[in-house]
Amino acid sequence: MSTTSQAPVQQPASSGSEPIEIVRVSVPKRSARSELRAIKIVWRRELIRFANDRIRIVTMLVQPFMYLFVLGAGLQSLSRAGTHGVNFKTFIYPGILCMVVMFTAMFSAASIVWDREFGFLREMMVAPVRRSSIVIGKCLGVATVASAQGLIVLAIAGLVHVPYNVGLILGVLALQMLLAFAIGAFGLCVAIRIKQMQSFMGVMQMVVMPMYFISGAMFPASGLPGWLTVLNRLDPLAYAVDPMRRLVFSKLHISPLARHVLDPGLTWWGWHVPALLEAGVVFALGLVFLSLAIWQFSATE
Amino acid sequence: MANNSKLDSNQPAISVSKLVKRFGDFEAVKGVEFEVGQAEVFGFLGPNGAGKSTTINMLCTLLKPTSGVATVAGYDVVRERDDVRRHIGLVFQDPTLDGYLTAAQNLKLHAELYGVPSNLVQPRMEQVLKMVGLWDRKDGTVSSFSGGMRRRLEIARGLMHSPRVLFLDEPTIGLDPQTRRSIWGYIRELQQREEITIFMTTHYMDEAEWCDRIAIMDSGQIVALDTPQALRAGVGTDRVTIQTDDNDATIQALRERFDVDGKLSEGAVSFGVPAGEQFVPRLFAELGLPIRGVSVSRPSLDDVFMSFTGSTIRDAEEDPAKTRNRAMLQMMGGRR
Known about the structure:
- Chain A is mostly helical.
- In chain A, 68% of the residues lie in helices and 1% in strands.
- Chain A has one domain (34-299).
- In chain A, helix 7 (166-191) packs parallel to helix 12.
- Chain B has helices at 52-59, 81-86, 103-114, 118-131, 147-159, 177-194, 228-235, 247-258, 276-286, 301-309, 313-318, 320-331, and strands spanning 14-23, 26-36, 41-45, 67-72, 75-76, 88-91, 165-169, 197-202, 213-218, 221-226, 238-244, 263-265, 268-273, 291-297.
């Protein structure tokens, strides 16, 4: 029932001069493959954006480097007696390896707030794909970006007297990826409900900084006051910082006393939690947060 | 048609029956019914808050109807949501492009998200970008594009997966008149080339002229639905405006001799008569007063809107009751 139009058809300037070939395409029905493809696309978009945004790459390094070199150097003289000859920078390095991943993952997850503000989220939400695929793709993208950022901090190990060792590098990378995934999922979980960037910054201040300080990234997690011990054991980041420290310290040539004081290991009611279990805790938390994020995202709009 | 739509040629592209959307106590859409034919350009007109966006959002599966049935491209918008999505293109009122990416990257991302076969992405992209005159800007970052270019790019993106129905929610809002005209040129051309159904909303009355048929929506209901010509003819009167030296005497003479009700506006007397051109010679012959100038104008869609809703579209938007509804809608995310 196509009716002819009376409206004046104004020819656009570009057409008419050359014939445009009509290419018709069709959209396949939704399948597991199309979901995987959607995950890949959302993931790749994060990488493209990260690569395009060089300023962010640099700014995300400022804070870890400040902690490592300014705070590390500044506290060196105070802490000399306590660290039993180990450089303070070396001591906090595993914490910094976690910090850079954590901060980048949180900030990258926040990009979903931008996506919402600038409307791009809507473009993804109306596509014939599951909401969960969008969240999973986003989470993996965030994790990849944060791990890449972590790699930069790993590259400067020599500056803080940590040897370049293949086992160490691979182990650190694996832990960083795990942490990036978990924090990415956590960040998405927080960011998905937030409509404005300012609110997210507030949440960052309230959640991320306490999480970082309590995790034991800047001090050994033993001999703490009772309340802090409890908080420390509840802090997800603690389960990434501890195995990271164990891993880095295992390659250092330091006195047994120093090792005992600086790398006491995490305990549950006096039981030393194995590094693998700690990694498992991080992974499990990541899965929980991811499920929560998917559930929240599916419930909106 | 190459597309794997289950629509055959005599089915309507969009069919809506008793569609209702309620936000709490507020009924934003009150049981609308209409059909849109294949390859038709269908306009949805009305002031802000009339329920246009809510209706369009239900049709493109972003909002669940409270009750009623709607099918798009032959699929039910609730039960066959993904099938509807595969066959529709969307251009929103608010921009949804990724400003960090180039025009080509935006289109590619869209094509991949929809699963367009990879060997067809490049040729299809070339076609749609050429259609909207952006082919030479394909590697430009979107953040460097003007408002009109972005809108054109959004239209191109909405077409990437060869949809059967293209939804345009206020496609020309916030653009200057010249850009609006050229966007319309593109839309009409696309509709002809792609044999696509276009469903759009607008609150610019002059734009409705570009549509094959229009529905006028007011307070959640469709108050009129026809071709722009028929709607204008339905109003039945042309507007005659005359300049005279003595307006009061003219108004009186008009009432006595022709039984028409003249009104003074902007220093001239104007009134409505069924056939303006035929009336003018009589006017000169029988008025008995000197006439300095005369003009006859056909009824505009503004007049149409006025005759169906009792207010001009601008007045309707300034009506405090409507403003309240609008605020409520926004509060409840009804426009999203």
